[in-house]
Design a protein that fits this description.
The complex is a heterodimer of chains A (about 110) and B (about 110). Chain A has about 110 residues and is mainly β. Chain A contains no helices and 11 strands. In chain B, about 0% of the residues lie in helices and about 55% in strands.
Chain lengths: ~110, ~110
Amino acid sequence: GAVVSQHPSRVICKSGTSVKIECRSLDFQATTMFWYRQFPKQSLMLMATSNEGSKATYEQGVEKDKFLINHASLTLSTLTVTSAHPEDSSFYICSAERVNEQYFGPGTRLTVT
Amino acid sequence: QKEVEQDPGPLSVPEGAIVSLNCTYSNSAFQYFMWYRQYSRKGPELLMYTYSSGNKEDGRFTAQVDKSSKYISLFIRDSQPSDSATYLCAMTLPTGNQFYFGTGTSLTVIP
């Protein structure tokens, strides 16, 4: 049990377009999900905490108007990168919380050309 | 069977003890292995990154990879209360396009 999926696993988009990434807890309900960003061989940077039914809490330095997070149900959170630019190219990873444990998704590699 | 298995603990040790954290995996194609440390409500911090069998040492931390047994370990020497955190193992295939995480081991070092 405790499986988290992400879709898509890879996405290439043109500069200026928006990209939506889905994070799903497949076999449990998660009131809290987290979104991270990772550059090669670096730590995962927490971007925001997503709570079901309420606004996400963004970490300092993360633009909430650029990285839109929606946690519409107990099993789904989405991250939309709006007006993407090449510097947004990165690996995005979500995690879902269950009983004080975090279960990570496999990640989404975003490439903006 | 999960791709990566990690004992969730919790693990509690006295200050100064040697800590051993372990993960096993099922996919022999995994090539890159990582250990992260995560404090409460923070993002996981990369501690060690290895890509071959053997040992890699960094200060009080030693990462060990045994590909033949599909087993990786993280050793912490002279453990400190500040080491109290959750430790996650992770691994990727040669393409590096997908992460496989362990569930994390909660460690408490008692002063």
